[in-house]
Amino acid sequence: MFKILVPVDGSKAALHGVRHAIERAAARPDASLCLVNVQPRLSQHVGRYVSARARREGMAARGARALEEAIQLAAASGIATRTAVLRGRVADVLQRYALDESVSEIVVGAAAKGPLLRFLTGSVTSSILATASVPVAVVAAPPLSPLQRYGIPAGVGLGLVALILASE
Question: Residue 136: which CATH number?
Answer without folding.
Answer: 3.40.50.620
